[in-house]
Amino acid sequence: MSNLHISSAFDRDLEAIQAQIMTMGGMVEAAIIDAARSLETRDIELAEQVRNGDKAIDALELEINEKAARVIALRAPTAIDLRLILSVIKISAALERIGDYAKNMAKRTSVLDDLPEVTGAHTSLRRMAREVQGMLKNVLDAYVQRNADLAMAVISQDEDVDQMYNAQFRTFLTFMMEDPRNITPCMHLHFIAKNTERMGDLVTNIAEQVVYLVTGGAPEEARQKGDLSSTDSSISKV
User: Fold this and answer.
1) 3-state secondary structure the chain
2) Predicted pLDDT of residue 123
């Protein structure tokens, strides 16, 4: 009976931690969408909500890590349960970083509000943010379902985000060359695009953790990075 009680308590601890991961994931999804919307509509109030909401995301990551550490210390989990707990810690860290990038996007909304608008840029950035948000939703579903195939599909989906970033990189260069007044807003927009691309990379890291959790190993094929802005000089030719 004592062992059964310990097992039940351990299961409850794991369920509570995983429920918090899903809560955190939902908060980060909302932060991505709201940050992109605040940028497109120049909604300073919404941007401020995203910035303030990041504190709750940070606090939840800290709570998840503390609970995970306590489980390891008190429950002495077996190999497969330890794998779950370690994955939770890494996933929560990735979610926290994605939340930081969303906050950074929102922070630039007030700056861009005082600068000339770059035609079409906000729409393309919103599209890119929605792609990342969709990836995050899918990878959280893969985590709940313990679905390695869905996680692998998310990894492949990151190539689309990289291609969107490459296209925006070239577009911003073109705008800056055509009119020096575009340089400052395009630099801010480029930072936002790069942050969004990094969000996609972090979602991919979560997908890799899901594959590890389900299979016990990393994905068989290494992902080829699609961001060419720092490795291919031809992408800078306009």
Assistant:
1) CHHHHHHHHHHHHHHHHHHHHHHHHHHHHHHHHHHHHHHHHCCHHHHHHHHHHHHHHHHHHHHHHHHHHHHHHHHCCCHHHHHHHHHHHHHHHHHHHHHHHHHHHHHHHHHHCCCCCCCCHHHHHHHHHHHHHHHHHHHHHHHHHCCHHHHHHHHHHHHHHHHHHHHHHHHHHHHHHHCHHHHHHHHHHHHHHHHHHHHHHHHHHHHHHHHHHHHCCCCCCCCCCCCCCCCCHHHHCC
2) 87
* Nearest CA-CA partner of 157 in 124, 194, 132: 132
Which two tokens mark 172?
A: 């911003």
Kindly report, residue by residue over 170-228, the tens digit of the pLDDT: 999 999 999 899 999 999 999 999 999 999 999 999 999 999 999 887 776 656 665 55
Distance CA 130, CA 149 (A): 22
Residue located via tokens 């992408």: 235
Residue 4 has what pLDDT? 42
| Global confidence as pTM | 0.87
Tell me the C-alpha distance between 213 and 97, whole Å: 21
The confidence score (pLDDT) of residue 132 equals 97
